[in-house]
Amino acid sequence: MNRQLVKTAKRSAKPAAKKVVKAEAKSARSADKKASKSARRPVGKSTSTKSSPSALAASMAASRSAAKTAQKMIRTASPPMQPVAPQEIVLKSHKYQLGEMVYYTSPTFGRAAATGSYQVVKLLPSEGDDYQYRIKSNGEAFERVAKESQLEKM
Does residue 81 or residue 151 have the better pLDDT? Predict the structure, then answer.
């Protein structure tokens, strides 16, 4: 029976302790709210209609110290930049021109295509290191895409 009394006493003490903790947290939140409101007040304007001489003197002293700090600040130009060495960019152009006749060798892997003479129909952008071409054979009704490495001059 003694154990039950102790347990009951503990249970009844817990809600009272929670109430105290909640009240303390609420008062801390209200203090934070008041502090943030005072921080939002405009600088140089007083909230009361009559300003006391001591408050006026304090605000003047604060503005003087801010002016001194501004005078001591050194303004510099943008941060220095490393000089960029001019690098020669080598632009590689297409080896074959439109309308030129070329000899096409099909790749050894994949589908075996008809090797032979083809005409360059269109210059395509590069894929990696090789430029690409759209080529057409007189004996075929369709066009192929070939890499520069697969073509030779005739």
Answer: 151
